[in-house]
Automatic annotation (TrEMBL):
It comes from Streptomyces xantholiticus. Pfam families: PDH_E1_M, Transketolase_C_1, Transketolase_N. The keyword Oxidoreductase applies. This is Pyruvate dehydrogenase E1 component. Residues 725-857 form the Transketolase-like C-terminal domain. SUPFAM superfamilies: Thiamin diphosphate-binding fold (THDP-binding), TK C-terminal domain-like. Signal peptide: none annotated. GO terms for molecular function: pyruvate dehydrogenase (acetyl-transferring) activity. Residues 486-708 form the Pyruvate dehydrogenase E1 component middle domain.
Length: 889
């Protein structure tokens, strides 16, 4: 849109021009350059002027893109601190063994990926030889998030340094009785090597950002000196399309996480073809990261391009590099030199003249292999620049060729992600290219051999010496010898054991009250890490603000609007609460970092992550699996739980299914407590199991409710039942010959069951025992273990069967969850079984109306109980019809 006089609207138009003549002179100068030297020269001068202004501190918007060339010119590269020829030989062995491992494994049909590591080998090798700090030196070392598809190369390096054997390599992607190698980084399967699981794609970069942030959190709170720990995240350019990959870029720059470096392997290919076929992914990523406030270092071209760029006196080559789309550049890497001369250099006369100065061999070298990510010196310079930059995180965009050194059958081919093996002839060609001393006789049996220069070879000694200087092998996971956490004082738990008397209290508030008291514990209080995505006040956690403080690396640079109130919004550098924005994914990444601090930093932390309704397992279930893979510990709390407790929220929020999703995770211990004292018992047991003398690699999921109810005192002798998942809370009373049944209820549903117990006794002379089912999931887990024991010839009765043994009448289960949740245990219940639940979408209405709609209120339970008894002939069938009419059903 233009204004009436034809001028484009601009922010500058809003400012008074204090010297219109000077402004006109600048504009005229630019016009003159464009007219006499061409628009490309004018654009060049404008970019250099803006760059100069940025360096001089002039407040202008930053340039989001630079030319498609290396950020660090060859003349500015630092001296290489190492033996480049030696590192070339080491990398060659690792390339070979990575390809051999996957090819040999293909005979078992287990698959594997070859092309990713082939493109990224120098990105890893340069880091291992010069930068990545190990865990045997001072501090915690560096944290490495390895790209999942590159794992064969990491295994190959561990084979070269003596940490793996040929037998291990032959067990790639197999369990092999505990002697196998998982397909991707997996701490649960290979806990001495892998520290962070990075598949599913996208979770690695998100977690890396929050890990770097958590390192600062530990440092600022005085728990661990992490000043020398650096987080390195290796990613694919295709992986950057995952929303999690870029979800927290602004957080990283906002908190100035210069302890973080992303290394994006830009081989221009994703799993099925080009990442940006008609565009340029490097330029897109540069703009995205710069716009988010990151420092960007591009390492695109190898040293063979130096001559071409020096000959480019008109800028035509740089312009052409900027305009050629990625898919076309991929094609250049697979076509002959004549094609490149015609289609690349033939674009304009200046390039035609430049190409006349180049031999075919030079063009072939540049377009086929010479990339910044394939040269140790280029990668070394980029890594040095990343570590030297302060005040912001750095991303390195390193261009490579996917399948590099694997031969023309692999390099830059769209299908190379799915190609799992090389032929013997292809291996022989690779041997010649890499210069490896592997004789033809090694292929005599038709199987590609592994290669190793010898345990006492110069290559292995060099590798081990470099790692020793950097603090030991990497990657490596270390569980430091940490003492069990002492049990907190009993006082905090006793407050909930005794109940609330006549005062009503929601179980959400009971949990928050318990944790608040536990955070005051002299021994363990500072190790609690409260995590909440922006709704702390919804959960009654605002009382923690002034006492514990909200973590911010800047402290509090403003006067809070509620400063005169008792529970004001207090931020502090040493704040304990991680009160995130509206990002469940970010909060979950916080939790993972805190939950694994015992291994990453040798500091045991106790995170609890409290979220609203279904926005935990439903939204971030993949990260819950990541937590399990990473052997994390802590408390996940689904607050405002259930499908009917959220008054008026409707189907978008009403959660009746999270316990089903949680049941799929083997590391998650899932509880749905009904009363405050049950929460106290569960949390106490969780602290023992996760942080006691025999610590387990599990985490707890508790659902708590926002419905205020009187909280009873804890009956005697129920602790074991609470932990195992079931105990009889209230025994029914009726006539001696009255029909009987068992009502099993969890969470807030126990209040409906208790009311149904009264109706059954008063209106129908039926006795119902009410059981509190604190964990349908733990009852099922125990029963499954009993079934497994039976297969081994061991006789064991499931706990749920034992608990209900001899209980008269049928069993009717009810919860604020879908019927499948209690139905998990039905096959181990000897009584006739039936269940009620909240299947279907939620709805906006009162709690009472919602419960009537789903058929789980006390009256509905009563009718369902009578129907069960009628089927058994214990009450007349007419009683069911009469009850429906009496209760308005």
């Amino acid at each position: 849109m233009t204004d009436p006089v034809g001028k484009l609207p601009s922010e500058l138009d809003q400012l008074p021009d204090r010297d219109a003549e000077e402004t006109a002179e600048w504009a005229a100068s630019l016009d003159a350059v464009a007219e006499h030297a061409g628009p490309h020269r004018a654009a060049y001068l404008m970019r250099r002027t803006l760059q100069h202004a940025e360096k001089a501190g002039v407040a202008l918007p930053r340039l989001l893109e630079t030319d498609y060339v290396n950020t660090i010119p060859t003349s500015a590269e630092p001296a290489f601190d190492g033996d480049e020829a030696m590192e070339q030989r080491i990398t060659a062995w690792n390339r070979w063994n990575a390809a051999a491992m996957v090819t040999r494994g293909s005979k078992y049909g287990v698959g594997g990926h070859i092309a990713t590591f082939a493109s990224a080998a120098w990105l890893y090798e340069t880091g291992f030889n010069h930068f990545f700090r190990g865990k045997e030196g001072d501090g915690s070392g560096d944290q490495l998030y390895i790209q999942g598809h590159a794992s064969p190369g990491i295994y190959a390096r561990a084979f070269l340094d003596g940490r793996l054997t040929e037998a291990h390599l032959d067990n790639f992607r197999q369990e092999a009785g505990g002697n196998g190698l998982p397909s991707y980084p997996h701490p649960r399967r290979l806990p001495w090597l892998w520290e962070f699981p990075t598949v599913s794609m996208g979770l690695g970069p998100l977690s890396a950002i929050y890990q770097a942030r958590f390192n600062r959190y530990l440092h600022n709170r005085g728990i661990k000196d992490t000043a020398n720990s650096h987080v390195w995240a290796f990613l694919g350019d295709g992986e950057m399309d995952e929303p999690e990959s870029t979800a927290a870029l602004a957080l990283a720059s906002r908190e100035q996480l210069d302890n973080l470096t992303f290394v994006v392997n830009c081989n221009l290919q994703r799993l099925d073809g080009p990442v940006r076929a008609n565009f340029k992914i490097v330029q897109e990523l540069e703009a995205q990261f710069r716009g988010a406030g990151w420092n960007v270092v591009k390492s695109l071209w190898g040293s063979a391009w130096d001559e071409l760029l020096q000959l480019d006196t008109t800028g035509a080559l740089v312009r052409r590099l900027r305009e050629v789309p990625d898919a076309q550049f991929q094609t250049y890497a697979t076509r002959d030199v004549a094609y490149i001369r015609e289609h690349f250099f033939g674009a304009e006369p200046a390039l035609v003249e430049l190409a006349k100065l180049l031999t075919d061999a030079k063009i072939a070298e540049c377009f086929y292999t010479s990339r910044g990510g394939h040269e140790a010196r280029k990668v070394y310079a980029a890594y040095r620049a990343a570590l030297a930059h302060k005040g912001a995180p750095t991303v390195i965009l390193a261009q490579t060729v996917k399948g590099y050194t694997l031969g023309k059958g692999f390099e830059s081919k769209n299908a190379n992600h799915q190609m799992k093996k090389l032929t013997i002839d292809e291996f022989k060609g690779m041997r010649e290219l890499l210069g490896l001393p592997i004789p033809d006789s090694a292929f005599a049996d038709g199987v590609v051999p592994y290669g190793h220069p010898g345990a006492d070879s110069a290559e292995v000694r060099y590798l081990q010496e470099r790692r020793a200087a950097l603090g030991g092998p990497a990657p490596a996971r270390r569980v430091h010898p940490v003492a069990p956490l002492p049990e907190p004082e009993e006082r905090a738990f006793k407050a909930l054991y005794k109940g609330s008397g006549k005062q009503e209290m929601a179980t959400t508030m009971a949990f928050v009250r318990l944790v608040k008291d536990l955070m005051r514990d002299k021994e363990t209080g500072r190790r609690w890490v409260p995590i909440v995505p922006d709704e702390a006040r919804t959960f009654g956690m605002e009382s923690l603000f002034p006492s514990a403080g909200i973590y911010s690396p800047l402290g509090q640079t403003y006067e809070p609007v509620d400063r005169d109130q008792l529970m004001y919004y207090k931020e502090a550098k040493d704040g304990q609460i991680l009160n995130e924005g509206i990002t469940e994914a970010g909060a979950m990444a916080d939790f993972i970092a805190a939950a694994t601090s015992y291994s990453t930093h040798g500091e045991t932390m106790i995170p609890f992550y409290i979220f609203y309704s279904m926005f935990g397992w439903q939204r971030t279930g993949d990260q819950m699996w990541q937590l399990a893979d990473q052997l994390g510990k802590g408390f996940i709390v689904g607050a405002t739980a259930g499908r009917t407790t959220l008054t008026g929220e409707g189907l978008q929020h009403a959660d009746g299914h999270s316990h089903l999703i949680a049941a799929t995770n083997p590391a998650s211990l899932n509880y749905d407590p009904a009363f405050a004292y049950e929460i106290a018992v569960i949390v106490k047991d969780g602290l023992r199991r996760m942080y006691g003398p025999e610590a387990e690699n599990v985490f707890y999921y508790l659902t708590v409710y926002n419905e205020p109810k009187p909280q009873p005192a804890m009956p005697e002798g129920v602790e074991e039942g609470i932990v195992k998942g079931l105990y009889r809370f209230n025994e029914g009373s009726a006539g001696a010959d009255a029909p009987r049944l068992q009502l099993l209820a969890s969470g807030t549903a126990i209040h409906w069951a208790l009311e149904a117990q009264r109706l059954l006794a008063d209106d129908w002379d039926v006795a119902a025992d009410v059981w509190s089912a604190t964990s349908w999931g733990e009852l099922r887990r125990d029963a499954l273990e009993a079934d497994e024991a039976l297969l081994r010839g061991e006789q064991r009765t499931p706990y749920v069967t034992q608990a209900l043994e001899g209980a008269p009448g049928p069993a009717l289960a009810v919860s604020d969850w879908m019927r499948q949740v209690p139905d998990q245990i039905s096959q181990w219940v000897e009584q006739d079984w039936s269940s009620l639940g909240t299947d279907g979408f939620g709805l906006s209405d009162t709690r009472e109306a919602a419960r009537r709609h789903f058929g789980v209120d006390a009256q509905s339970i009563t009718v369902a109980a009578l129907a069960q008894l009628a089927r058994r002939g214990e009450v007349p069938a007419s009683a069911v019809k009469e009850a429906r009419e009496r209760y308005g059903l």
